[in-house]
């Protein structure tokens, strides 16, 4: 095949097949090859931009999507992807304009309403966000996911837990830049505060077996190893997070699982169970406490943090899409599962929009 346009068309069609099969890196390469042979072709630009958005390459997606919308101003999908790229690079005003253009062209663009709702939520325009999520639901968007979004901005009754697929996808896509974003942009410190304030083992003993729930990329592992842990197991829902945790070398075992059902059947005993900034993505905590009570060795310690919810309400799904829990709820669960509060302190967990988010750090002793 010597005709450059025929080659470009074949690369484009290959890219579409890869994209539809979620082979996004292959799709990106195919669209790049097509674009090299057919510069400025709007359909290729739009699809290359879409692939880069799906890959989380938002900065790289921006110029090709800007070219695509300039070349084909009536392409609602391209405007929608441009809005997503702008939002995820912090260009909120540009994102709003792009979504507005997309929805003027196609008022039934489901993903456009969903993403516009997300931008409104991040800007604190909660009623407007709710309207967008309701519109997305009416157009057939994922009902469970969008009712979760809706609960975060409407308040009142919230789902007991976030959709599993949402959490897994979020952290798989977040894994490569997780530690840098947490400790840099969000000034995350829950792991440091939680481990630093662990009470010493009796008579200078060591933690024989440590279970790190929601271990993520392994921020707690090296610190607790430095406190004398003999064996550390990490559990996380994200396989890509676990790959990062494995690279740090602090863990003896890493388990890919949802912590709540896994705890219900795990056959083990641990004298220290950690959960640093994990329960913000769990919601209702009764099953977790029941599971920890199963695996906690006699006299063991359960140490965790929660985003604190003032007052007596048990928990609330916040506009950040994170759950906050009250001290009263934590104390009631501890008592119900035979644990005693050994220590409790308040300190920031992270920042949100440069505002410290207050956390409650809890250390419970088992029977």
Characterization of the model:
The chain is an alpha/beta fold and 367 residues long. It has two domains: 4-156, Serine Threonine Protein Phosphatase 5, Tetratricopeptide repeat (Alpha Horseshoe); 168-365, Vaccinia Virus protein VP39 (Rossmann fold). 53% of the residues lie in helices and 17% in strands. The mean pLDDT is 92.
Short note summarizing the structure:
The chain is an alpha/beta fold.
CATH architecture of the largest domain: 3-Layer(aba) Sandwich
Q: How widely separated are the two ends?
A: 75 Å
The count of DSSP E runs of length 2 or more, i.e. the number of strands, is: 9
Tell me the name of the CATH homologous superfamily of the largest domain.
Vaccinia Virus protein VP39
The CATH class name of the largest domain reads: Alpha Beta
Largest sheet: 7 strands, mixed
CATH topology grouping of the largest domain: Rossmann fold
The proportion of strand residues reads: 15-25%
Averaged pLDDT: 92
Write the layout of secondary structure elements.
Layout (H helix, E strand, L loop, with lengths): L3 H17 L3 H14 L4 H13 L3 H14 L4 H13 L3 H14 L4 H13 L3 H13 L4 H12 L9 H11 L3 H8 L4 H7 L12 E5 L6 H7 L4 E6 L2 H10 L4 E4 L2 H7 L4 E6 L10 H10 E12 L7 E3 L5 E3 L1 H10 L3 E13 L2 E11 L2
Parallel strand pairs: 1-2, 1-4, 2-3, 4-5
Antiparallel strand pairs: 5-9, 6-7, 8-9
Helix pairs in contact: 1-2, 2-3, 3-4, 3-5, 4-5, 5-6, 5-7, 6-7, 7-8, 8-9, 15-16
């Amino acid at each position: 095949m010597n005709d450059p346009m025929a080659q470009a068309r074949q690369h484009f069609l290959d890219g579409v097949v890869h994209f539809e099969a979620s082979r996004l890196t292959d799709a990106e390469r195919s669209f790049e090859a097509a674009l090299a042979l057919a510069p400025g072709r709007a359909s290729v630009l739009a699809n290359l931009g879409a692939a880069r958005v799906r890959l989380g390459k938002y900065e790289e997606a921006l110029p090709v999507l800007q070219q695509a919308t300039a070349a084909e101003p009536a392409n609602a999908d391209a405007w929608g992807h441009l809005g997503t790229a702008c939002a995820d690079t912090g260009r909120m005003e540009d994102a709003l304009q792009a979504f507005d253009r997309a929805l003027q062209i196609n008022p039934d663009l489901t993903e456009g309403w969903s993403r516009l709702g997300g931008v409104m939520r991040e800007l604190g325009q909660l009623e407007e966000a709710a309207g967008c999520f309701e519109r997305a639901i009416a157009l057939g968007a994922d009902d469970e996911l969008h009712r979760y979004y809706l609960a975060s901005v409407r308040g009142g009754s919230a789902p007991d837990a976030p959709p599993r697929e949402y959490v897994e996808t979020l952290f798989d896509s977040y894994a490569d830049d997780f530690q840098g974003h947490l400790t840099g942009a969000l000034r995350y410190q829950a792991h440091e505060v939680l481990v630093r304030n662990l009470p010493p083992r009796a008579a200078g003993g060591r933690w024989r077996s440590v279970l790190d729930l929601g271990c993520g990329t392994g921020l707690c592992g090296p610190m607790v190893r430095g406190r004398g842990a003999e064996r550390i197991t990490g559990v996380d829902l994200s396989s890509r997070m676990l790959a990062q945790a494995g690279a740090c070398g602090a863990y003896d075992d890493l388990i890919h699982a949802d912590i709540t059902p896994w705890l219900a059947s795990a056959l083990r005993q641990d004298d220290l169970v950690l959960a640093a900034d994990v329960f913000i993505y769990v919601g209702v905590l009764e099953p977790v406490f029941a599971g920890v009570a199963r695996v906690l060795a006699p006299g063991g310690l359960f140490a965790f943090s929660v985003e604190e919810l003032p007052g007596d309400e048990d928990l609330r799904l916040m506009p950040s899409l994170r759950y906050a829990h009250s001290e009263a709820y934590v104390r009631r669960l501890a008592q119900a599962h035979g644990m005693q509060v050994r220590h409790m302190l308040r300190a920031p967990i992270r920042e949100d929009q440069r505002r410290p988010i207050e956390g409650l750090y809890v250390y419970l002793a088992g029977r």
